Amino acid sequence: MRTAQWGAAGALAGTGLIGLLLFALGRDETWQALGGGLVVTGASTVLGGALGFLFGVPRVRGGSDQPQGSYAPNTNLEQVSDWLTKVLLGVGLTQLGSLGERLHELGSALAPVLGGGDSAVPFAAALVLYFLVLGFLAGWLVTRLALPRVLNDADRALDLFLAGQDRDRHGDKVGADDLRVRAMQQLGLLGGSAEHPAALAGQLPPASGSPAGPEGVVAEVRSTARRSALTADQVRGLFTDGSEGRRIQALALMQGDPALADLTSVLDAIEHPRSGFEQYHALLAARGLLSRLPAAEAQRLRDAVAAQLVDPRGIPYGSDRSWLAEKILSRLQVTAFVPTQPVGPAPAAVPAAATSPASPDAAAPSAPSSSGAAGES
Predict the structure, then answer these.
(1) pLDDT above 90 as % of the chain
(2) Residues 132, 210: Cα–Cα separation, whole Å
(3) For the segment 239-253, what is each residue's pLDDT rounded down to a tens digit?
(4) First to last CA, the chain
């Protein structure tokens, strides 16, 4: 279907361009007629596309039955489009009787561009009308089909960003980063490499009051982790159970409560993940541990994440996992793990005889007499 649509659009545009080429070949000034016709064609298409855009701008839904967002969308473009549409329709209807005369005047004005002559008048008018209508249809269809999706994606992304900021203010760094990643995926800024396997939905318990799917289950488990009666050893045992569903449940608990986290389990999920979805949530769990790790364990985490970034089979570049991995590395204080080197040369060794208390006479020359010091001064 998509191929047929593009083929039909190309055939419509090609028909007009072929007609222009054949007309120009029959003129004495072939290149002048062809160049002028292409300019007229482009101008008509742009004007028609602008009109189609004005007619196709979507309306913002509103009412008591519609969900209320966190902000009021700007509807100036919608109001201008509605106003111009009515004006153009009104003017067009009043001038409908003189449409033929207006087209003849337009053709006469553009005929010199196409080489002049009586035959150029109707051809110029037909060329403008043809590509004006074609541009209008193209502009209307693109605006009608693409613009609502772009606006909806932008609205959803903004809501996710605002929700992430709210989580951040409440101290939920992991949930905030998760929402930011989803917002950037909504805008197409990050690749969605953390898709969950199809079989994972059956391995996770159903989520009550949360969005359906593994994402909703993880969010619910994360939100209830601090109220859970599980201990860190039990969460570790849940991870070592073996099934991917249990491993992801354990990672979700670690995300919600860093006191339940086990760095060895998190590193295992980062270095040997069952899927990109599991590795993504392991990185989220590691994100929540950054402020609790001692230097040695932070170095282990840094090495594991860095190795996955440089491994061709590890974390894909430009994905949601790479964004989290780079953020983790930026938060780790690398300089704290590198031993500091002494600045400047080391002091020369002093002979043992010079410092021995058994030879007081050897140390006497090092202290100048007071009279000598006074003479020097």
Answers:
(1) 19
(2) 50
(3) 987 788 888 889 989
(4) 101
Mean pLDDT of 127-139: 91
Task: Please calculate the CA angle 178-180-183 and round it to the nearest 5 degrees.
Answer: 115
pLDDT digits (tens, 9 = 90+) for 295-349: 899 999 999 999 999 998 889 888 889 999 999 999 886 444 444 444 444 444 4
For residue 372 the two structure tokens come to 């000598």
CA distance 140 to 163: 34
How much is the pTM?
Answer: 0.62
Nearest to 247 by CA among 258, 257, 236: 236
Cβ contact 309:349 at 8 Å? no
Give the C-alpha separation, 159 to 167, whole Å: 12
pLDDT tens by residue, 59-112: 666 554 544 444 445 555 677 777 877 887 787 777 666 777 888 888 888 888
Asked if 254 and 293 count as a contact pair (C-beta separation under 8 A), the reply is: no
Q: Which of 108, 113, 112, 106 is nearest to 128 (CA)?
A: 106
Nearest to 307 by CA among 271, 262, 266: 271
C-beta of residue 71 within 8 angstroms of C-beta of residue 157: no
* Distances from the Cα of 17 to the Cα of 23, 24, 41, angstroms: 10, 11, 8
Gap between the Cα atoms of 109 and 100, Å rounded? 14
SS3 state at 319:
strand
**CA 95/CA 9 separation, integer angstroms:** 30
Strand partners, 191: 319
Q: What distance in Å separates the CA atoms of residue 319 and residue 189, rounded to the nearest whole number?
A: 9
Phi, psi of 71 (to 5 degrees): -150, 165
* Mean pLDDT of the region 194-211: 57
Dig out the tokens for 25 from the structure: 């070949």
The dihedrals phi and psi of 319, each to the nearest 5 degrees, come to: -100, 175
Q: Which residues, listed in sequence order, are joined to residue 157 by a DSSP beta bridge? A: none
Give strand pairing partners of 319. 191
Spatial distance between the Cα atoms of 289 and 302, rounded to a whole number of angstroms:
12
What's the rounded mean pLDDT across residues 145-169?
A: 87
